Amino acid sequence: MVESPGASQPYRPGPADAGRTSGRVVALQANYCRVELDAPGPEGCRRLLCTRRSRLDHEGLQVWVGDRVRLEGIDWSAGRAAVAQLEPRRNLLQRPAVANVDRVVVVTALAEPDLDPLQLTRFLVAAEGSGAAVDLVLGKADLVAKPVLRQACADFKAWGYPVFPLSTRTGLGLATLRHHLRTAAGITVLCGPSGAGKSSLLNALIPDLDLRVAAVSGRLQRGRHTTRHVELFAMPSEPAAADALALFPVAAALVADTPGFNRPELPSDPVVLAQAFPEIRQRLALGPCRFRNCRHLEDLGCAMGTDWPRFSLYRQCLEEVEAIASVPTRVATTTRRRTSRRQTSQGLSRPGREDSDQDHP
Hints:
By secondary structure, the protein is an alpha/beta fold. 29% of the residues lie in helices and 20% in strands. Strands 10-9-8-11-13-12 form a 6-stranded mixed β-sheet, sandwiched between helices. A 5-stranded mixed barrel has the order 1-2-3-5-4. A two-stranded antiparallel sheet has the order 6-7. The radius of gyration is 25 Å and the shape is globular.
């Protein structure tokens, strides 16, 4: 789920960098990317529309939103340049694809559509894969009764996450979340299922954005995709400051709006899956299981047991991971058997047996 090619190092221009400058990718659009510069160019230019040098493709390097890049071939009058080099990434959240993430905020709705605990768990597991801090926003909180909201907050805190109940319609929780994100410099990614209200949340946090939103389908109770690409926006430092589309300093708190999707992939390694559950990490810190390869499913000597809130959800995720991992083995075995039967029917001996007969007449 995450790529960690090494710690990011500060870039200091040298003699070979004459005519180059550096910045951060803030949006991808078709074959172009928009780069926010570290320092303004002539006439205060802070953002350039850039292509990528073909050598990046030859080296297998993909540019993502959040990447730190170095530019060359700058045409200040046209506002154009080319991405010549990628700086080392701290991490890469694969879906949605954002580099150098500091915080992932999983946004889910308490109603319209109804909350799906297994789907939410998949999003949280994917967020954990980034290695960034993970928060949980419970949107549309005004659509459920107060006792239900209190119980939901208590339940999800027991999962091990900071919980922010919120309503963009009434304003509940907006000030708290806005302060939380402003004080967390770096890149925050909003992710979650379609229809959870990510774009509505960004509109409420940064009013001048005016992102397009759509109602949930009444028949299917599914969200509609309104965000088509990933883009970074600046959190205004003060409530009165909010030209959200104004250019921003690199050190500002940046929030990424991302396209919604409904089924995040799980990690292929059961050990990585277990580590993506804060409940497991916390309990194993007190005392490890008897066996290193413990599956944490009522196994002999398991320190986890079954008395934790997401045990059944963890079981479902683990069973899926193990089922997928076993598919290649089953396919290979079936292929070998079919080949063996075909060779036998044609009067052919197995290659291994033939070699053995030659070595031992």
